[in-house]
Write the structure tokens for this entry.
Amino acid sequence: MPAVQEIPAREGRAVKVSRGQALKVINTFGTQVVDFWAFNAADLGTYLSMQHTRATLSRLTPHAGDILVDNWREPMLSFESDTSPGVHDTVIPPCDRARYVKLGCAEEHASCAGNLRQALERLDLTAPPCPASFNLWMNIPVLPGGDLEWRETVAKPGDSVVFRALVDCIMVMSACPQDVIRINSGRPVSAQYALLDG
Amino acid sequence: MPAVQEIPAREGRAVKVSRGQALKVINTFGTQVVDFWAFNAADLGTYLSMQHTRATLSRLTPHAGDILVDNWREPMLSFESDTSPGVHDTVIPPCDRARYVKLGCAEEHASCAGNLRQALERLDLTAPPCPASFNLWMNIPVLPGGDLEWRETVAKPGDSVVFRALVDCIMVMSACPQDVIRINSGRPVSAQYALLDG
């Protein structure tokens, strides 16, 4: 039974995941969006790319069973399982300082982009600028005509996804601190993860 | 009457556009996808961002009248006019060498990512890696359920879009060389542009 680790509310965590290992991300309370990134451990300029994954799959959002690719279109992760209804987002960027300032918050409001940087810094790593995140459980339906809505998650408490590394990776998760709009049901909470061996 | 310039088939062009000036991009034959980027002339690490523009507009694809933002969520371009039916794409990345190799083409097949690099190099500039493009006239409908289709353009010959610079910019266009799938009606052709003063 792998040790389950906490992602504290509004914080990020980075984990080294060797090829063949997998990371389980758990939506402990079912209401939390978790922004997710993966970087090639040998070169952080090679990372999980939402735009290239959309083109490879010819689909806006990956499903369990899909292979996710990096910014060179090479297979990086197997999206091995998903116990949730599968409502995730790839079209909205991670929240950042600019987002919260425009929403009227203080400059020091936590953000997923800041959490990514800090989580990697704790491993003495520097993130490349602006990688798009795979926004787990973020519920952004595309309406006919292309308008986007920002809704609450539809996950159940304890729902989880598993990503298996096809190359040595650094995977990063941020328990999204968005508390102005209602994507986290208005109250950002913690999430969890577990490193699974092959 | 501003001088109309050619974007030769399968090639790219970069243009300095000062604040207040505008660039008109013309779909000469109506069948051509033109990948488009804009960079802040003072810092090429600041560029038109499709993901931040989607979030700012709460829409998948900008319409004429919208303000397009950079990767710091700051206004960069005014999407001033569009004579076409407004079918453009923001979710598919520019084609690149990896795309064509996977499609069975030779490594030297032209690509929009390569055209971006070469067009900027002709101005002694270096593009940051992997900026998402605004794919003018690319017809990628999102089906219910999120599947994407790759269709031919719905533009008419001579349709055009106009982007006005809100900051000093380098704008780059690539006449997409995709000739394997049918997004350019199977035959990549030239397009045109014109620099418009304020």
